[in-house]
Amino acid sequence: MEVRERKAQTPLKEKLSDHYRKRDFTPKKKDVSKLGIAFFWGMTISLFLESVFYLIPHIYSGWNMVIFILLAIFTLFLTTINWMGMFFGSTGFVDKELSKKHFPQATETPRGWKYCPTCQVDAPPRSFHCTHCNACILKRDHHCFFSDSCIGFYNQRFFILYIVYMVWGNIWALYLQITYLNDVYPLNSFYDFFSFFPLVAIVQFLLGKFSILNAILMIQIPLCCLCLCAAVFFLLFELMLILKGVTSYESHRTGPIYDQGMCNNIRSVFGPIKTIPLQILFPLFRVDQQSDGSQWEITKTKGH
């Protein structure tokens, strides 16, 4: 009778130790985007649910309640549409066909264009390579970590409208939250104000003085204030760049050398100016941006 030798089995503790020893815990670029997307959707969905099912029914009644619930649904819908416009919409990836379209007979990199060794394509003016997207982007402005996509020629208008609804959504959320908490926990003295601080609210919850929902509200208020300040800053900054005809990348490198005048700069992002109010309410329809994002005329010298 043969005796088969059994291989010595590695203990489970040693396997786990070896597994984690070999893992790379260095933060990746994609991890930042995942965190940004999770934060955005976590805040958005939680604010929507608490507004529709908790805050609005407490503050309003009758038709006023119905109207404000519909307004909350409409706000969530348009915020989602503009986020999807950034995420799924064409950012303007540069491919080999673009140079062939404009320079069918060219055998070298066209004048004013540049060759990207990573993408192995001729890239037009104002396009830059994004290490996050691993592609060259037409009129690249920046990489948005809340949608994990580059903001470029075709989706910049969605980014602006997304920020507009972020500003409006946070203002309205703060109004509902503060109105509700002031009704439930009125500020009778200056010291009562400190109970709205997140750490104090957590302690009050653990002591049984606050419900878990009210404690969550007090934690969300400073987060909403932070998001509101950031959204207002980015909105004003992006609008300033658009009016000057410059991207955030160009603003501290070349300056507004492609400035076509205020009206034309706006049209290059939103299309016809008269359609902008309609885009705020119905952002999905196509707009004529006057070009395909590859042809730009230099109107100023660098540094002027």
Secondary-structure map with pairings?
Elements: H1 12-22, H2 29-59, H3 62-87, H4 96-102, E1 114-116, E2 121-123, E3 128-130, E4 135-137, E5 142-144, E6 149-151, H5 156-184, H6 198-206, H7 212-244, H8 248-251, H9 262-270, H10 276-281
Low-confidence stretches: 1-7
Continuous helix count: 10
Class by SSE composition = mainly alpha
Beta content: 5-15%
**Main beta sheet:** 2 strands, antiparallel
- Into which percent range does the helicity of residues fall? 40-55%
- Number of DSSP strands? 6
Output the helix-strand order.
Answer: HHHHEEEEEEHHHHHH
Q: Looking across the biggest beta sheet, what order are the strands in?
A: 1-2
What's the overall average pLDDT, rounded?
85
Radius of gyration: 26 Å
Rounded to the nearest angstrom, the distance between the terminal CA atoms is 93 Å
Q: How would you portray this structure in words?
A:
The protein is mainly alpha-helical and 304 residues long. Helix content is 54%, strand content 6%. The protein has 10 helices and 6 strands. The strands form 3 sheets. The chain has a two-stranded antiparallel ribbon. Strand 5 (142-144) and strand 6 form a beta hairpin. Helix 5 (156-184) packs antiparallel against helix 7. The protein is globular. Mean pLDDT is 85; it is low at 1-7.
